[in-house]
Specification:
Family: Belongs to the ATPase epsilon chain family.
Shape: elongated
Number of strands: 10
Pfam families: ATP-synt_DE_N, ATPD_C_metazoa
Strand content: 25-35%
Radius of gyration: 16 Å
InterPro entries: ATP_F1_dsu/esu_C_sf (IPR036794), ATP_synth_F1_dsu/esu (IPR001469), ATP_synth_F1_dsu/esu_N (IPR020546), ATPD_C_metazoa (IPR048937), ATPsynth_dsu/esu_N (IPR036771)
CATH topology of the largest domain: ATP Synthase, domain 1
CATH class of the largest domain: Mainly Beta
Number of domains: 2
Oligomer: single chain
Helix content: 25-40%
Main location: mitochondrion
Number of helices: 2
Subcellular location: Mitochondrion inner membrane
């Protein structure tokens, strides 16, 4: 099973895959990007902003941008990817991401409190990842 979920403050959930058999899932994590195949060792990892790539049984490939979250690989080879935000890569606009990146960098440079700096740094990191993913 692979559940790639999208959640936000409104507790909205979008499931991209549910009980689907796939060949492989590649995920970006803070400990490095890695691929998940059947019989992968059970793992829990924190996702970093980037692209989750799903290789389907029929040969199709689906790319989903995630902002952050977790990936859990269970003993039965099931996988759950829970993301704060998840969007099909083809739905992202590189030009808009570049604008957001520019604004986030300005906010980071002008931030005075630690909270504002942290929030701006996260926005920069996510926007940079979107720009890179859509290149």
């Amino acid at each position: 099973m692979l559940c790639i979920s999208h959640t936000n403050a409104y507790i909205f959930m979008q499931v991209f895959y549910d009980q689907a058999a796939v060949k492989q899932v590649d995920v970006p994590s803070f400990s490095g990007s890695f691929g998940i195949l059947p019989k992968h060792v059970p793992t829990l990892a924190v996702l970093k902003p980037g692209v989750v790539t799903v290789y389907e049984q029929n040969g199709d490939t689906r790319k989903i941008f995630v902002s952050s979250g977790t990936v859990t690989i269970n003993e039965d080879s099931s996988v759950q990817v829970l993301a704060e935000e998840a969007h099909p890569l083809e739905s992202l606009d590189r030009s808009a991401a570049q604008d957001i990146l520019s604004k986030a960098q300005s906010q980071l440079n002008s931030a005075s409190s630690e909270k504002d700096k942290a929030e701006a740094a996260i926005a920069v990191e996510v926007a940079e990842a979107i720009v890179q993913a859509t290149a």
